[in-house]
Structure formats: structure tokens, C-alpha cells
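User: I'm preparing a small set of examples for a lab meeting where we compare how different chains pack in three dimensions. I only have the primary sequence for this one, and I'd like the structure in C-alpha cell form so I can line it up with the others. Please keep the answer compact; I'll paste it straight into my notes.
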Amino acid sequence: MEGVDLYRLLGVGRDATREQIRRAYRRLVKAAHPDAGGSVECFQALKRAHDLLMDPERRRRYDETGDATEAAPDNGLSAVIEQVAIALDFVLGAMHQNGFTPDHIDVVADLTTTLRKRLEGLATEARGFAQAKLTCLQLAGRFERREPGDNILEGIVANRIRELDNRIAANAKAADLARKAIQLVADYRYAFTQPTASRHQGRLPGPRSPVLDLLTNMGAIF
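Assistant: Understood. Below is the C-alpha cell output for the 222-residue chain.
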């Protein structure tokens, strides 16, 4: 990507937040995906730009030197960190939306809750994919042409099965990342201030959570 301005490629300013970069990438990559008629080169360029600008250290180096070289392999740690970062963005957004401050909130607990909700959503999605594939397998081999020629309907079913296989594999990978992200967060605790006991309650209330109400009726978060 030598000579390409990564910010301009994604259509964001150099002061763009992680959330603005993520949204711009998601919007552009849908049209650039080869399955949607886009080019492989454009799709890969957007992916590389997103990955670099979402990595704080690589972004800092790029801003200072213009160095956009690929990062060395890290055995998937960056992908796990990205899951935690997205969850943290969600928690911070919930705090802001509900007018909470970090003082009386167990952010680690809310991160864990968010990631577990993500995992639950992926499990629901996986069951849907598995059921859809089973239905397609039951359809396969049942379409016959009345006249000689290509069996287009059988081809459609076969393509659908391959597509579902890809989605099932992607879902399994995402679930594995979510589990690893939960494990990463489990190694931390958050220093919040315990609220004082109410005279009417006669006991200490637990830390307040700005995300629980938002999570109640949500499916997969990201």
C-alpha cells in the first residue's frame, strides 16, 4: 500500500476514533467484497488499512513515519485484543448513554458480560447455520430437469451449502476468539469505589452496571 493514504482510503480524518474507523471499514468493505462485485485488491487494501489503523502502536508509527508494513505474526493475540477493545467500546458507550462515571462501575465485570453475550449470540447464530445446512442437504439430489441440460437448481443448493460451510467456519473462529477474550479479561480486576450503604437498605449495594439493561434484549453485539 505504498503511497496510499490509509485515512483517505477509508474516508476518515486523521483524528478519527476507533469506532469511526470501524464503521467506515464496515460500510466500504460490503461493496468491495468480491462476492458483491468488488475487486480482491480493493477488499484486501481496505482490510490492511483497517487492521493497521485499529492497532494503536502501528497507527502511531504510521502517523509519524508513514510506515505501513505488515505486522509480524502474533499467533492471534491481536485478534483477541480487538475483541476486548470492541467490548470496551460498547461498555464505554453504555456508560456515556446512561450518564455513568467509572467510579462505581466494575468495568471488568461489564466487559465479561458483554463478551459472554457476544458468545451467546454466536451460539444462536451457529444453530441457525447448522439447521439451514441440514435443510439444504435434504434438498440436494431431489431436483431433476424435465429436459437435458445443466441442473441449475442443484447448483444453487450446492452453492448454498458451501456458503453455509464458510459461515459455520467463520462463526466457530469468532466464538473461539470470544472465549479467549473472556479468558484474557479474567486475569484483570477493576478498582472501583464501593457505593456507600443506603440508610433504608441497611446493606452495601453492588457496583452499578450501565450495560445490563442494554444487553437484555440484544443478540450478537459485534
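A couple of notes for your slides: The chain has a mean pLDDT of 84. The CA atoms of residues 10 and 23 lie 10 Å apart.

User: Perfect, thanks.
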